Amino acid sequence: MAFDSINPATDEKIDSYEPMSSAQVDEILEQSAAAQRAWARSGFDERARLMRAAAAVLRANPQEYAGLMSAEMGKIYAQGLAEVEKCAWACDYYAEHGAGFLAPEEVSTEAAHSFVTYKPLGVVLAVMPWNFPLWQVFRFAAPALMAGNGALLKHAPNVFGCALLIEEIFRRAGFPEHLFRSLIIDVPQTTVVIHNPLVAAVSITASVGAGRAVAAEAGKALKKCVLELGGSDAFIVLEDADLDKAVATGIVSRFQNSGQSCIAAKRFIVVDAVYAAFERKFVEAVKALKMGDPLEEGVYIGPMARRDLRDGLHRQVQDSVAAGARLLVGGELPEGAGAFYPPSVLTGVREGMPAWSQELFGPVATLIRVADEAAALAVANGTEFGLGGSVWTRDLARGERLAADEIESGAAFVNGMSKSDPRLPFGGIRSSGYGRELSVYGIREFVNVHAVWVDDA
């Protein structure tokens, strides 16, 4: 059965993609493995040259790429342009720093000479989601390719157009044929690929359930796996916070990409002393957000990527309200075409409600009122997730202490929104996954850390 690409703003069919046969997939794996073996012998200068060429291709065609993301998953066009530039940044970053990150390291032992080298593992399979159709892939592919690996992409079915486009970007940049390939396959085929001996490792960005399934298969095959899964990031507002800055940043952190981000601020945990003022300012800002056609200038909330995702989010909101939460704005399904959901704010959220314990993957903010800093930390850390978080305070020493020592997550920000950055490691703990992407830690995930010991003859 073909995979249909549906425009979530109009419900119109954009394209249809036939799944690859087992024979086609096997051929691609053979071709990718051969390309990777040759690529592993290339030098860092050549890899960096092509990585910079990929950045140039991205920067030469941002309108094309942003337009396709808008059509396939409803991304706001301006945000798509920013996503393209971020992908180019990642390519440039690893072109500049990859060789240094993987340079041999001398180690003093009783040997005449001993050192550690970093060698590519082989072909790495990436299972990627639809919410950042280009960035999720490039933040994996840039370090993986720079390290000398090959890459296979199993993208989300609703963005298979983006998957093939990324393959074409690397081809236009001059990368070896078959080094990066996109697979048009379903979940059962993906399991077969994971177990193929030509696949050395797996990276997945997805829901907790999908991550568990992929990790289980990778574990059976004894293959390295990096998981970046869900999040329910805390946004802690203390009594001495700059409320205007916190509200403005919180709006972006919660509602950009129509709220469909694993590292979005989802739980706004506000101390009692400033809760009323924060709620008032925040709700006013949410009411000002314009929902509509993602290609229209001034629109900030586009459709969600699929109707089933929109309907699932609405059930979480309804179930939370039925359990006693209150809607301050939004929460009603709009009529007409498209997978739209209005920007919404819930308050009065308590333990046991979906809005308390589950990830709300869409434009819904949860406001939680707490007594003080200690209570805020208890709520922030009282979750199965641990991807990112932020704390807002004018006392920078206090904020740094909380971010470094008290917030349990893969990253914590003081007076700033949680985000991914090529210069910093990205990943989580607990149900948010394990392993790291980006920075030096990301490029070293898919290498063989190889010790060499040499003594006198």
Helices and strands in order:
Elements: E1 3-6, E2 13-17, H1 22-40, H2 44-60, H3 62-73, H4 77-101, E3 105-106, E4 113-120, E5 123-127, H5 135-146, E6 150-154, H6 160-173, E7 180-182, H7 187-195, E8 199-205, H8 208-220, E9 224-228, E10 233-237, H9 243-255, E11 265-271, H10 272-287, H11 307-322, E12 326-329, E13 344-347, H12 354-357, E14 364-370, H13 373-381, E15 389-392, H14 396-406, E16 413-414, E17 433-434, H15 439-443, E18 447-454
Parallel strand pairs: 5-6, 5-8, 6-7, 8-9, 10-11, 10-15, 11-14, 13-14, 15-16
Antiparallel strand pairs: 1-2, 3-4, 4-18, 9-17, 12-13
Short summary of the structure?
It contains 15 helices and 18 strands.
Average pLDDT level: 98
Task: Tell me the structural class.
Answer: alpha/beta
What is the count of helical runs? 15
CATH architecture verdict of the largest domain:
3-Layer(aba) Sandwich
User: What general outline do the C-alpha atoms trace?
Assistant: globular
Q: What is the highest CATH level, the class of the largest domain? A: Alpha Beta
Helix content bin: 40-55%
CATH-assigned homologous superfamily of the largest domain: Aldehyde Dehydrogenase, Chain A, domain 1
At CATH level 3, the topology of the largest domain is Aldehyde Dehydrogenase, Chain A, domain 1
Main sheet: strand order = 12-13-14-11-10-15-16
**Largest β sheet strand count, sense and barrel closure:** 7 strands, mixed
| Strand residue percentage | 15-25%
- Low-confidence sequence ranges: none
State the domain count: 2
Separation of the first and last Cα atoms? 64 Å
